[in-house]
Amino acid sequence: MANALQVKDLCKTYITNKRQNNVLKNVNFNIEEGEMVAIMGPSGSGKSTLLYSVSGMDRPTAGEVSLADKKITDLNESELAKVRLNDMGFIFQQMHMLKNLSVMDNILLPAYQTDKGGRSKEEINVYCKELMRKLEISDIADNDITEVSGGQLQRACICRSLMNKPEILFADEPTGALNRSSSDEVMEMLNRINEEGTTIMLVTHDMKVAANCSRILYIVDGNIKGELKLEKGDTSPSETEKKDRERKVNNWLSEMGW
Amino acid sequence: MNAKILKKDLKRKKSMNFILLIFVMLATTFIAASVNNMKVITTGLDHYFEVSQVCDYLINTMSGINGEPTDNDLRLEAFLEENENVDNYEVDDGLMIFEDQLEDVGDSELELDSTLTVFSIKSEQQNYFDEENQLLKDIGAGEMYVPKKLLSETFQVGDSIYIKSGDYKKKFTVKGTVKDVILGGEMMGMARVLISQKDYDDLVEHGEFVSQKMYGVYTEDVDAFYQEYVDQGFYVLFNGDMGIIRTTYIMDMIIAGILLAVSICLILISAIMLRFTILFTVNEDYKEIGIMKAIGMPDKSIRSLYVVKYLVISIIGAVIGFFVSIPFTDMLVSSVVKNIVIESGNNNYLTAGIVSVVVVLVIVWFAYLSTGRIKKVTPMDAIRSGNNGERFEKKSILSLSKSKMRPTTFMAMNDVLCELKKYIVLVITGMIGVWLVVMPANTINTLQSEKVAAWFGLAPCDFFIMEQSRVEENVATADRQVYEDYLDEVQERLEAIDVPVDYTFTEVLYKYKVSKGELSYNSMTLMGLGSDTEAYMYDEGVAPKEENEVAITHMVAQKIDAQIGDTIYINMFGEERPFIVTALYQSMNNMGEGVRFTEEADTDFAAVSGAFGVQVVLEGDMSKEEVSAIIDKVEKEMPNAKVETTKEFIDDMIGGISDMLKPVKTMIMTLVIIINILVMVLMQKMFLIREQGEMGMLKAIGFSNGSIMSWQTKRMALVLFVGMLLGTVTGTPFSQLTSGQVFQLMGASKIEFVINPLEIYVLYPVVIWAATVIACVITMLQVRKVSVDSIKAIE
């Protein structure tokens, strides 16, 4: 399998009150195409910083990050914007959307902004409706973002991140702001998307979310301390299968000092 | 503890607090300057007349050589001595200097549009003031003070001229300008020059000059005096009470009126700006208010914390605004109101101080009211920025999927439609800005249009020829034949240099008592020698044809309660002669005065007080360029004559108002652009702070800096466009409401503004819009500093 993401000697340092804070220290890892990787670790370990640095949302202090064959650490701001628009999707913990647009218009926004694929407006609209149907939010298309539940809004954010058919999807605690039932729905959707071939890298605190992934990286003090590979399960596993995977993850996390 | 929180707040939210500070400073500056400006403008003329200590009624007669009284003067003096309504009267003599009695020195060249009359500084009638509004008490030997209206590019302070009479000539150097309340108005035809008593005596002793007498009458009852005076039928050059003298300052008042409108608009913009900024900043504070409530701080403490914050900011802003407003007031007033003695600036500090305190109180009051909701809302409501429910009203109006617009254009349009209220400041600023620019532009265009000639009661012609000394000589002869011969002579002189003249004509002016029943009025009357009464414009009725028919202006009709078909009486040759009114017309001459005779009317030429230049009508239908070439030729061949187009003639007649208005227009245009830019930049900065979360999110989903700037700029440009469109559509009615009133005051009852569509609808709006949008783009460059991380600031 080819690499969807390659991270080499990644460092990120913040200067706070004239004090240097090395958040990421020479991090190295790869993610293969079609993988679904969870990043876990205690608070302040550098999980989100790692996600933002590898996704081009933030500039690392040193090191290299490549998306497929594109070295994004060498790109200028305008080239990075294009990468964010065309090659990747990003899901935030909070369901950030423009408040003056309807749910569907928010989803459509990146697709109308790009010229990738030369799709017509009609094709984009059809694709958007198809995605919304898949993620079961067709009925809220014309609603304002203030008129829908958190789970629905997060699914709308997932739709938006998929509109330009990205190679890789990044997610920062995608279920962090949701209740258990909404959280399960969202993870089911992410699993389905991953099944369809989209690579996913997500940050989570939730052991149950991590148990859905094919690999877990555990980060402590800016270094990857351990890695757990899981066999790919079904999109809708049975309760027993779920429990088995969760137990396995739980045991491993205990070993890591979670 | 509160002091600590406040200190931290001022530091941490420095951008928002700084914007509020700037708005407070601007509002204080604009309001203080505008209030001062309004005070000076509205009380300016009253103040000028008061400090000049003028008489109640003025009569100006033509007298003999070197002040020798004529029979008419003696009769007038006897009347003034005996009339019981006259408390007292003073006489000042003035020597009339014609162009051929002046000799320029060196490069200086005095061009006379009106007669120059030399008076001694030792006036009994009034006080004079210098450029600095200081009382003018003494003038040195060989010095003269001239009114500003006599100065030109070729005749400045420091220049010298000779006044000649026969072999005698005396050199005078212009020491400075004089503010002369009686004859200083731009609409006053005469111009008074002041010299020392000794120099005046020297001129009288060694030379011979036609003279005038200026009678200043002091009376308790001007109306009663006037009714008895007008019955006497004296021959006068001018008479009028101080109300009439005030109207000669109409041009200054037009400018003052425009400034008044500017001031009111500035106050309006400042008030809206303040309200918007405070609501905006208080809203920003709501999240923290919620947190303080959540940790149990009492409402009173929270509220006082924020009120104190606004008090501190507003005091700093108001103090800065106070100091900036003083030079700003001076700039507004002194750059345009040049002809009158305005009140000294000492009171400006007091007004600015009061305004500053009021601004602080208003802000604190606003802040107090705005934070009043603290008591009612729960901590969570406050954290949600004052919104108190899970459901909100529907916001999105347009649909991106159905729209053909680019996403950034769509977002801009949709934002404006969803939250129109948020942009109302910019809409109003844009609209008012256009009003302020359109108003002087329409006034200038109207005053410079061909239409104005008709509104001044003039018949159309191709050009005017003015030979001042010949006209004065003609007037002195009191003989109609001399005028007619002069018209023929001018035509022959023109034909001799191959100018294809069709005919020439002139307007002869008289001051006659016009009456109907008990009502009478001393009005300017006119007769066109060589012209057809059909050539003039009338609003109602038909042109007078017979010798006993007249047309009268609306103003005269109102004064004597006359209508078309009525018989009115005009006092001439010592008797009341009947005339039938056949038409009503409007005229801006002498503030709307006017009675027009036919050429056949038998009038008393001894009563003629003046005449216009010779009006020349050329053969065939000539283009502007051809007429212009002929004017150049005539100017060359007749070096002593002043040759003018109708436009130039009118402009001279009304004191070069167009030239006076042009710098005002430029000043307003500059002011409008500055205000638009300030409001735009400050609003945009507020939006940048408020919407950095959205911008971070857009960056995260792949929008480039350029796209985000495009969204924000399009939104502001659109809002400004809407405001300016509204301003452009309503600008002309606004002009009608403001400067239209002044035209009416001048005697024109039915003025239609002449609009230059390219200038009003395209040029000015585009210049203002483009300058403001460029400022917006420059402000928006800060988008580059917004990081994806800012997404955390999203509401």
> For the record, what CATH class of the largest domain in chain A applies?
Alpha Beta
**Helix segment count of chain A?**
8
Spell out the CATH superfamily of the largest domain in chain A. Answer: P-loop containing nucleotide triphosphate hydrolases
Mean pLDDT of chain A: 88
Gross geometry of chain A: globular
Walk across the major sheet of chain B and give the strand order. Answer: 9-4-2-10-1-11
CATH topology of the largest domain in chain A: Rossmann fold
Detail the poorly predicted runs of chain B: 386-392
Which second-level CATH architecture of the largest domain in chain A applies?
A: 3-Layer(aba) Sandwich
Strand content of chain A: 25-35%
- Shape label of chain B: elongated
SSE arrangement of chain A, N to C = EEEHEEHEHHHEHEHEEH
**Structural class by sheet pairing and helices of chain B:** alpha+beta
Number of strands of chain A: 10
**What gap, in angstroms, lies between the N and C termini of chain B?**
28 Å
User: Which percent bin holds the helix content of chain A?
Assistant: 25-40%
Identify the notable features of this structure and list them briefly:
heterodimer, A: 258 residues, alpha/beta, Rossmann fold, 2 domains, four-stranded antiparallel sheet, 10 strands, 26% strand, globular, B: 795 residues, alpha+beta, 4 domains, six-stranded mixed sheet, six-stranded mixed beta barrel, elongated
Structure description:
The complex is a heterodimer of chains A (258) and B (795). Chain A has 258 residues and is of the alpha/beta class. In chain A, strands 6-7-8-3-9-10 form a six-stranded mixed sheet, with helices on both faces. A four-stranded antiparallel sheet of chain A has the order 2-1-4-5, covered by helices on one side. In chain A, α3 (103-113) crosses α4. The longest helix of chain A has 18 residues, at 239-256. Chain A is 36% helix and 26% strand. Chain A has two domains: 3-87 and 168-256, 3-Layer(aba) Sandwich (Rossmann fold), CATH 3.40.50; 98-165, no CATH class. The model of chain A has no long low-confidence stretch (mean pLDDT 88). Chain A is globular, with a radius of gyration of 18 Å. Chain B is α+β, with helices and mostly antiparallel strands and 795 residues long. Chain B folds into four domains: 1-54 and 250-387, no CATH class; 92-217, no CATH class; 407-451 and 656-795, no CATH class; 463-644, no CATH class. Chain B contains 22 helices and 22 strands. The two termini of chain B are 28 Å apart. At the A-B interface, α2, α3 and α4 of A face α11, α20 and α21 of B.
